[in-house]
Design brief:
By secondary structure, the chain is an alpha/beta fold. It has 19 helices and 18 strands. The structure holds adenosine-5'-diphosphate and magnesium ion.
Length: 730
């Protein structure tokens, strides 16, 4: 505002000055005619000088300086004008115009140059900018890359750390498990502790151990973890479940490889599918093997798919190696214990056999004595009943009772004798009437299948299903009897809740040969495959302390010895069928069983009776004399033979000799030999209290025409006398 005001004041002052001053004068200083304008060139000159001074600062100053020079000249010219339109004035105006034009053109050129300059600069700037941007980009990329690398490194470190941690954890778990396994000695508890630890500390949702049986190519779930059991039950796979090892994913494990399945629902095998049914997804099966023989597998599963790391698998593999070793050791220990137990049992069994043998001999001796004792009684009673015409009916009935009781005692003693008969390896196989034998064995074992169970409130129905007209079996009666007894005992043991016990005989007529079979069939607990396979082994028993495991071994031995086949059918829960199949005895049984033989009438005979027992001697003499015979008694073998020889060839010669078998100095056989030596045609009847040998129904011994059991019954005695005389007479 001050400047404007100053300028305005200056303009006014100048206007006033120019009005006052005369426009033109006569030529004055230096001939100047317009002195009022004398300052104009001076001002231009000053301005020009100032701009020239600054010409390097800006081209506009140079331009303005040059224009100022032209203006100075133009304004100098006007100083010499005398009118507005004279030549100097025109020149001055033209000069002024030219000066301004020059300046304008100069300015325009300058601005054009500047424009071009600016454009170039702008262009340059643009290029620079692009370059810069590019470099920035590059740099950013580098930074990003190194950032990524750094991040990766950090991740790797973290992963390594985590891996290390988890490895450490697994190692601790392994240590813990092996430690607790080391404290145990039986396989079952070793497995249980392993499974329990895995469930608790690994942890897993499903842990079990399956044992592999190569013969059946099947695995059996043997142990389940406590937390696993509900799942196992839900998918119907509790303990003892048998899983066949075919193409179901178990096969590879049973070949010794560790199997890992991250998502079970997607595989086509039945076993993982079954587990998947229980909500399980990831599965590891690690084989348990001893010396490259797989005996089972550890089966581990988790609900979460893909949840086992390679560290887990390595750990399970290692664990399985440890567990296998421990199990192996435990197994060895158990085997040792078993061997020791077997040894103890066999010692007991030998002792038992020894005891039985002693008992048998004792019983045999007792039987002999009893026979000797009751022989005279039986004979006297019978002869009294037959000949005592003047007996009162009461006394007769007493005598009949005595006779009957004596018969009972005889039968009991006979059974006792047969039961403890000694074995003779060379004895040929005789014909055995199986039907009779079965009846006898059922009778003998009655206490075991009837009385004892009844006392416990259990009923066992016994059925004898006997084939009619069964040919005799080739065998040894006592041995078959023992075998059947054992089979019946086993059948009773198998039916603790009662049931039906059938003993059946039948004839098998095959193409080649006829065979006879006896079966013992029960409706008891039956046997599983393993028991069935091992039941014949000596000492194999499922009855614990109660069993000896020798029964079936003995049955098997008998079958072997007799050339018979032994067959077993059994099904758990249904029952068992034991069959012994014999060849038919070649020779049919000789003679008919002596029924009620008709009374035999004999001519009076001279009979020599030899026995060391005076009571028997007396009673024999008595009954024979009552029959009208003449009897000479000798109380030992020597005396008997002497008497025979003395009488031989005379009218007093003996028609028959009856001798006891067991006598001191000279026994019945020797007596028979001596008699036959003297007179081969004289019949010899041998009395024996020992019963017959196994080949009972066969030929009498050498030199003996007939054997008779003690105590001899009167009809048998008569029949024997008649029989031998008939033979001798021919
Ligand atoms: P023990 O009777 O002393 O056990 P055995 O040799 O007689 O010995 O029998 C061996 C095993 O065979 C028995 O422990 C039992 O497991 C099995 N067994 C034998 N007979 C039968 C049967 N009739 N039913 C079921 N199991 C049987
Ligand atoms: Mg038995």
């Amino acid at each position: 505002a001050a400047f404007m005001a100053a300028m305005a004041a200056l303009i006014v002052a100048l206007l006033a000055l120019f009005e006052w001053l005369p426009s033109y004068t006569a030529p004055t200083w230096l001939g100047i005619t317009a002195p009022a304008l004398v300052l104009a060139p001076v001002c231009w000159a000053a301005a020009g000088y100032c701009c020239w001074q600054r010409r390097d600062q800006n081209d506009i100053f140079r331009m303005f300086a040059l224009m100022s020079a032209i203006m100075v000249l133009a304004n100098l010219a006007i100083l010499y004008s005398t009118a507005y339109d004279d030549a100097p004035s025109m020149i001055a105006h033209f000069g002024k115009f030219a000066g301004k034009l020059f300046f304008l053109v100069g300015l325009m050129e300058m601005s054009a140059i500047e424009m071009a300059e600016r454009l170039r600069a702008e262009n340059e700037l643009h290029l620079l900018n692009i370059d810069l941007e590019h470099r920035v980009h590059e740099r950013t990329k580098q930074v990003e890359q190194s950032n990524d690398a750094l991040k990766g490194e950090v991740m790797r470190r973290q992963q390594a750390e985590r891996r290390l941690q988890s490895q450490l954890g697994r190692m601790r778990l392994l240590d813990r498990i092996t430690r607790s396994v080391g404290e145990r000695q039986d396989i079952a508890s070793i497995f249980q502790v392993v499974i329990g630890s895995l469930e608790d500390y690994m942890p897993v949702d499903f842990a079990s151990i399956a044992l592999y049986s190569p013969e059946q190519n099947a695995a059996t779930i043997a142990h389940l973890g406590v937390k696993t059991r509900p799942i196992a039950v839900a998918i119907a796979m509790p303990e003892k479940t048998r899983v066949p090892v075919d193409e179901n994913g178990l096969a590879r494990a049973m070949k010794g490889e560790l199997v890992y399945e991250p998502a079970m629902a997607t595989v086509p095998f039945s076993f993982p599918r079954r587990l998947a049914g229980g909500g399980l997804n990831a599965l590891v099966i690690a084989p348990l093997a001893i010396e490259a023989k797989v005996f089972g597998a550890l089966i581990i599963a988790r609900r979460q798919a893909d949840s086992f790391t390679s560290i887990d698998c390595e750990f399970l593999k290692q664990l399985c190696e440890h567990v296998s070793l421990a199990a192996h050791q435990a197994q060895l220990r158990e085997n040792l214990q078993q061997a020791y137990d077997d040894l103890r049992k066999s010692r007991q069994a030998v002792m038992q056999q020894e005891r039985l043998r002693a008992l048998g001999q004792m019983a045999s001796g007792i039987a002999h004595d009893i026979n000797n004792a009751i022989s005279p009684m039986a004979l006297h009673t019978q002869s009294l009943i037959e000949t005592g015409g003047n007996l009162t009916p009461r006394i007769r009935s007493y005598l009949e009772i005595v006779s009957r009781v004596t018969d009972d005692v005889t039968a009991t003693v006979a059974r006792m004798r047969e039961f403890y008969r000694e074995r003779d390896e060379d004895t040929p196989l005789g014909p055995v009437d199986l039907n009779k034998l079965v009846d006898q064995v059922i009778d003998l074992t009655r206490a075991r299948w009837s009385d004892l169970p009844q006392r416990a409130g259990v009923t066992i129905e016994m059925h004898a299903d006997l084939a009619h007209g069964l040919p005799p079996a080739a065998g040894v009666e006592s041995e078959i009897r023992e075998a059947l007894t054992n089979l019946i005992f086993n059948a009773v043991d198998a039916m603790p809740q009662g049931g039906r016990l059938t003993v059946r005989t039948s004839l098998l007529s095959g193409a080649a040969e006829r065979r006879v079979q006896v079966e013992v069939i029960d409706t008891g607990v039956g046997m599983d495959a393993d028991t069935r396979r091992r039941c014949l082994e000596p000492f194999f028993t499922t009855k614990g302390e109660r069993g000896t495991g020798l029964g079936l071994a003995m049955v098997y031995g008998v079958a072997q010895r007799l050339g018979a086949a032994l067959e077993i059918d059994s099904e758990p829960g249904k029952g068992t069928n034991f069959r012994i199949i014999f060849a038919v005895a070649e020779r049919a049984e000789k003679g008919q069983a002596p029924g009620a033989a008709p009374p035999v009438s004999l001519p009076p005979l001279r009979i020599l009776v030899i026995d060391d027992d005076p009571v028997i001697l007396d009673s024999m003499r008595l009954v024979l004399e009552l029959d009208g015979h003449t009897v000479t008694a000798a109380n030992d073998g020597r005396a008997g033979v002497d008497a025979f020889r003395a009488a031989h060839g005379t009218a007093e010669a003996f028609a028959v000799v009856i001798t006891d078998l067991g006598m001191p100095y000279m026994d019945g056989h020797e007596v028979a030999r001596a008699i036959k030596h003297t007179s081969s045609s004289t019949p010899v009847i041998l009395l024996t209290g020992w019963g017959r040998r196994m080949s009972g129904d066969q030929e009498p011994p050498a030199n003996v025409d007939r054997t008779l059991d003690k105590p001899p019954k009167l009809p048998e005695l008569r029949e024997a006398l008649a029989g031998t005389l008939a033979m001798g007479g021919q």
